[in-house]
Amino acid sequence: MGLAVLAACAKPTPATRFQYHGLAFVAPAGWALDTTDLRTTDGVFTLICEKSGFNESGIVTLTCIEQPLSVAEGLEIFRQSMAENIIYKNADLQFQPARDTTLNGQPAQALAFRLSLLGVPHAGTLTCAASGGRLVSVMSQTADEDRPKNLPGFRSIEQSLTW
Fold first, then answer.
1. pTM here?
2. Strands 106-117 and 120-131
3. Containing H/E element for 77?
């Protein structure tokens, strides 16, 4: 009971501008950045932005590869990585065919995917774009039931993203 009261009284996370190695975006209010594992290893860095609060399912994983890869190569690398991840292996991960799109005005390709985590249906999108000798991947994922409240956060992150 005391924990529930504390969670209800917690101040919402303010919008936060993030910048690292030329990658920048705004994490909207109510979303928290996790830079715990942020490091550049062999020209690759990853960070996570999650919807704050108890029982929230929105997550965005941003990865930057500082190598000149094609968008198709990058999409396949990330698709394979997800397919080999132990969590996704046990979650009936299913990908849709790649489609052309844009990521904040840059030509991109995206894969929609579906999975079931602990019996809860989830959907997501894996989007890759390349520019200036870098490949950027944005993976957004949400429980189906939370999709309406998470989509504005996903859009905000993607629309503010620069690299």
1. 0.88
2. antiparallel
3. helix 71-84
Q: What is the DSSP letter of 41?
A: B
pLDDT in tens, the chain (163 residues): 444 444 444 566 889 999 988 899 999 999 999 887 677 778 888 899 999 888 899 999 999 999 889 999 999 999 999 999 999 999 999 999 999 999 999 999 999 999 999 999 999 999 999 998 999 999 999 999 999 999 999 999 999 999 9
* CA 77/CA 134 separation, integer angstroms: 14
CA distance 10 to 35: 21
Neighbour-count burial for 74-91, b at 16+ CB within 10 Å, e otherwise? bbbbbbeebeeeeeeeeb
Q: Which H or E run includes 155?
A: helix 147-160
Sign of CA dihedral 148, 153, 154, 155: positive
Instruction: Report the alpha-carbon distance of residue 81 to residue 65 in Å, rounded.
Output: 14
